[in-house]
Amino acid sequence: MSMTRRTILAASAATLAAPALVRAQGTQPIRIGEINSYTTLPAFTVPYRNGWQLRVEQINAAGGILGRPLEVVWRDDAGRPQDAVRLAGELLDNERVDILGGTFFSHVGLAVADFALQRKRLFVASEPLTDAIVWDKGNRYTFRLRPSTYMQAAMLVEEAAKLPAKRWVTVSPNYEYGQSAVKWFKQLLMAKRPDVEFVAEQWPALGRIDAGATVQALAQARPEAIYNVTFGPDLTNFVRQGNTRGLFERRSVVSLLTGEPEYLDPLADETPEGWVVTGYPWEQINTPEHTAFRDAYRARFNDYPRLGTVVGYDMITAIAEAIRKAGTTDNEKVIEALRGLPFNSPFGPVVFRALDHQATLGAYVGKTALRNNRGVMVDWRYADGANYLPSDDEVRRMRPQGA
Amino acid sequence: MDFVLIQFLTGLSSASALFLIASGLTVIFGVTRIVNFAHGSFYMLGAYLAWTIVRAFWDWGGREPYLFVAGVIVAAIVVSLIGVAMEMTLLRRIYRAPELFQLLATFGVVLIIQDATLAIWGPEDLPLPRPPWLRGFIEIAGSRFPRYDLILAVIGPVVLGLLWLLFHRTRFGVLVRAATQDREMVAALGVDQRKLFSGVFFLGSALAGLGGALVLPSQSANLQMDLSIIAEAFVVVVVGGMGSVPGAFLASLLIAEVQAFGIVLLPKITLVLVFLVMAAVLMVRPYGLLGKPQAHARAQSGMVEPVLRPAPPILAWAGIAALALAASTPFWAGAYALTVLVELAVFVLFAASLHLMMGPGGVVSFGHAAYFGLGAYGAALGLRYLALPMEAGLVMAPLFAGLFGVVFGVFVVRLSGVYLAMLTLAFAQIVWAAAFQWVDITGGDNGILGVWPSAWATNKSVYLWLSLALCIGATMLLRRFVFSPFGYGLRAARDSELRAEAIGLDTARLRLVAFTIAAAAAGLAGGVYAYAKGSVFPTYISIPKSVDALLMVLLGGVQTVTGPIVGAIAYHGLFVGILQTTQYWRAALGLSIVLLVLAFPLGIAGFARARWERAKGLEAA
Amino acid sequence: MSAPVLDVRSIEKRFGGVHAVADVSFSVAAGEMLALIGPNGAGKSTCFNLVNGQLRADGGEVRLAGRSLAGIAPRAIWRLGVGRTFQITATFASMTVRENVQMALISHHRTLWSFLSRAADKFRAEADALLAQVGMAEQAERPCGVLAYGDLKRLELAVALANDPKLLLMDEPTAGMAPKERTALMELTRGIVRARGLACLFTEHDMDVVFGQADRILVMNRGRLIAEGTAETVRNDPAVREVYLGAGTTSGGH
Questions:
Q1: pLDDT reading at B301 higher than 60
Q2: C-beta atoms surrounding B261 within 10 Å
Q3: Are A230 and A208 in contact (CB under 8 A)?
Q4: How many other CB atoms are there within 10 angstroms of residue C124's CB atom?
């Protein structure tokens, strides 16, 4: 661990961060250390990286924060929490970053959150969905941006409760995210509709769905409605088998995250119609703030934004606003600033709740449809995250004392 | 009954897909004895290439079935050429290296292909648009059954038949069968082994490519395909009996049907089911369904194990100096250096523990991460349920791992060679699945948090010293074991089981004790790691972690006692260094592995020792 | 003559329909070299493996110094005082010559389950003495993997003697050796057998070795003993002559 190696690392980090680097003469940049699963999930994390990059450039072009430019030093955790924790240490100790942010996987997010607590440093978890990160495992130093599993399930339950269906089945990848997503959906739907029953469940292994057998097993239960949590390659596989075998015909399907372009686009001309989904109909949202965002993104990257793009973009906005409000990068003060901080997302106004450090960023709920041989969302509306959270008392019960 | 029929047919089509990839793997293994990790990558390449080629054909001549078939075949051929290229440029140079060294090389290729695929095809999943004839179905017993699945279900037996013809009606096939049974004999008959091996790689890779291309109508080409298929393909090969194509067919049938019906009865068992099947089969039939006992794998590599000599004084002094330097780091380097050093200490012990089994024990484990993870979980569960402090947790870690080591070891040591390795993998996957899916107890993939050191050890310097003391101390102890009567007995059992038994050594018990010690030592490493990271996750038990340990041992040199130490430092140093310096770190790491393999076929420490022995004029075996 | 060291009574072994060993009885006394010969497939190896515990007899009895060996594993038989050499040498290639012998001594003295002491320091003098007996003292430091074949055979002999055996079992001890070496090795063996008062049972193809070194010879054919006695008796036995007639000579047999 000689000095040479450290110098090389520092130098290379600077090169890596170069696109995001604005060297204002004589001023020290504010450094944000960003960790994500760039090689493990490039389909999600690359648009996400473009998102934060765009926002950093915009802020720096407008003169930075507190007269200092923003700089992001990013690292690839390779999907391993143990590496993420090491890199978090490296960013704090070697790169001297002021604030930590990022992560996609829930377990990586939780690992960094716990590390942040240990080191008493601010961590803005951008993408992880697990409820634990702000509730049972919540801590003073961790904030989470994206609407959680609970919130998205609650958005879908609102729609599911309106359906006439009583016999439900669920299909979900067998790990914490899938299990929570099913648990909340069942619990919240049964509270609203005591007459529904869940007659079967399928738990394919993540990334290893045996789609034909799974579809057949679900059909065997003769459900009236299906709740789907699978995503990515599993989803494509499931949808193709389901289409051919007629699983979705004359049945309602409620599906988590499926309207996000990351998951919807690969379904292409096989996108099933009429599924109730949460997602992001990027081409149809024409509010001034979203149009501006979309145009800027297109101009910069010659591509359309994905949901991850918005998340990366908003993470930088929130951090920048908090520093501006605190007037310093001192983490304790920035945390105070973040608690209850309002900021503007391309989706509209968002608040970081002081209660549990969850942002009220919402999602779009609508139905899937086919247009020009590709999947889109129709009949959608924006579901503000603030309306899909448990009561404050419940949250207080779940969250550790003093967090 | 209708449901049973449909589910059975569904199982058949999954079985076919599984068989295609497994048959290629088993043919390659049977002849070359290479555990080809890159086989999954060839499967992935088959899918990506087919996506490109079939679409190009369709753009040119319409979405006709025959153009799909042509595209699939072209894709398979391109993949087979890539396979041959890997054999000719890389593997051919290292056939004389110790057994399993080729595994290391193929793993390097896996990493390179991952990044190459990402660079060429981009990050997003690529679905092949299905024209109506690919979406069609037929009515069977009142249910709709995809016509393509029916075609797949037929392709498996057809390929089996074609392979049978190839193996029984052509000279090449006869040679392949002969080589599978007795490689030396074929060489003695004057057959050009190089051509035979290239031919086998051509055939095997073509089958992998075909498998990848044929799943395209049901699933998108994606970057996770390679690793998600490889473990299952190995399971099929082992359950069927390594080198047996009909065995692979039976095994794919068994596994696919067990899976198809298993998920109806026990929906949550998905992940462990195949590994439970494998463990059960291996306990009853140690060489798989249709496999034959291998001639002792070590004899086949044509390598004689070199004599182990205690380290020369200069090496001992160098070690002490390195340790002193490491212990003094807090006085001259930053906090991050301490973090990396703690990891290095942990991995040195992790690698050394695997080496005790792989080197002196001659027992290769593909699932050593299980014990690393069990140690970490032992500490974490102790904290979560018994509120154990760090001190007790660090005692708990090796005990917990060692306990599982005994239980699994009883079954493991009855087997040998690759079958043994695969049983260790099966146990590791079962442990992993428990950690990953049994959310109520283990927290699932969210892991167990807050596993931080006791107050006196929270200081980074103190924890570094503690880690060095425990990990390096335990490593030195393992080293001492190697030169003790027990270690000699272990080596005796490896060198000649017949002779060892004939001088009264209980070889099975020697291996079991070694397995348990290795498990406990890995558990201690896991425990130290858990408190260093503050949390415990199923990723500690995952296959890549086991592969890490293998890479460290092989890179350092399995035939030396210093090998695992050097290997752990080299590999982790490489990993940490490259991870942060390049976007395409996987390709860079893969390339480094390949180059190291070519430069040091005996491992780094093995190379150094050979040079030292030559310089000293010592007789090497 | 005192009680025999090895006493074999009416042993039987069948493999499916093949009667590999049928009603074979013999005994070996201390200090005696007993050769077991016969054409290929006569049942010598099976007979041998029934004695050393590798195979389990279907009937009959094998006694070592009066103690039945029925159902005892090879490992335990060794502990009772049976040393063995193999047709194809089996030594520990990753050890030096001395360490090979030390390994056997460690097992014999039951110090295998020691984890901290250094094996290379154990029973060094004893090992060197055994190596000296077989004329391998100068090669003690050499890796066993580089030894000439004849030297490996001597090493095996030293290893077989490490547990101070009562009985020495040698399966084709001179297979693969040059004729000169064969006689030398067996003369060495005979000297040790006499000096230590061991009983030695060996199978052998080389008739020069057999007739030159054995005190007594057993001849098997098709699973049965067809002759027994001194070299002279056996040489003149009509049944033996008939069995070997096909070969046309008394030496060789491959």
A1: no
A2: 17
A3: no
A4: 15
Nearest to B305 among C93, C104, C159 (CB): C93
CB A145 within 8 A of CB A361: yes
Chain A nearest C-alpha distance from B520 (Å): 21
Residue B99 — pLDDT band, cuts 50, 70, 90?
A: low
Domains of chain C, by residue range, sit at: 92-164
Range ranked top by mean pLDDT from A72-86, A328-342, B328-342, C81-95: A328-342
B184 in Cβ contact with B44 (< 8 Å): no
Residues of chain A with pLDDT under 50: 1-25
pLDDT tens-digit map of B40-89:
999 999 999 999 999 999 999 888 999 999 999 999 999 999 999 999 99
Closest listed residue to residue C151, CA positions, set C178, C190, C122? C178
Put simply, the answer to whether B446 touches A241 (Cβ < 8 Å) is no
Q: Which of C111, C116, C145 sits opposite B621 (nearest CB)?
A: C145
Domain B304-616 listed as CATH 1.10.3470? yes
Angle ∠(C21,C22,C23) on CA atoms, nearest 5? 125
Portion of chain B with pLDDT greater than 90, in percent: 60
Q: How confident is the model at residue C142 (pLDDT cuts 50, 70, 90)?
A: very high
Residue in chain B nearest A246 by alpha carbon:
B144
pLDDT at A19: 41
Mean pLDDT rounded to a whole number for chain C: 88
Does the distance separating the beta carbons of A12 and B443 come in below 8 Å?
no
pLDDT score at B304: 58
Taking only the tens place, the pLDDT of each residue in C145-163 is: 888 888 999 999 999 999 9
Q: B195 Cβ partners below 8 Å, 6+ apart? A: none
CATH architecture assigned to B2-32+39-299? Orthogonal Bundle (1.10)
- Rounded CA gap, B127 and B51, in Å? 8
**B219 and A13: CB-CB below 8 Å?**
no
Inform me whether the pLDDT recorded for B621 exceeds 70.
no
How far apart are the C-alpha atoms of B410 and B243, rounded to whole Å? 26
Q: What are the start and end residues of each CATH 1.10.3470 domain in chain B?
A: 2-32+39-299, 304-616
The verdict on a CB contact (< 8 Å) between B489 and C120 is: no
Q: State the Cα–Cα distance between residues B414 and B503, nearest whole angstrom.
A: 20
- Number of Cβ pairs < 8 A linking chain B and chain C: 116
Contacts of A51 (CB under 8 A, 6+ apart): A297, A305, A308, A309, A310, A311, A312, A313
Q: What is the mean pLDDT of chain B?
A: 90
| B150/B12 Cα distance (integer angstroms) | 8
B250 pLDDT above the threshold of 60: yes
Q: Do A213 and B270 touch (CB under 8 A)?
A: no
What token pair was written down for B368?
A: 């050593």
CB neighbours of B558 closer than 8 A, spacing ≥ 6? Answer: B98, B100, B355, B358, B359, B603, B606
CA distance A326 to A339: 11
In a mutational test of the C interface, the residue from B296, B488, B517 whose CB has the highest number of chain C CBs within 10 Å is B488
pLDDT tens profile B497-555? 889 988 999 999 999 999 999 999 999 999 999 999 999 999 999 888 998 999 899 88
Name the nearest CA neighbour of B299 among C85, C101, C93.
C93
Domains and CATH numbers, chain A: 3-147+287-361 (3.40.50.2300), 150-281+363-388 (3.40.50.2300)
Say if residue B576's pLDDT is above 70: yes
> Nearest to residue B212, comparing CAs of B11, B15, B14, B17?
B17
Here the ipTM equals 0.90
Contact partners, residue A286, CB within 8 Å, separation at least 6: none
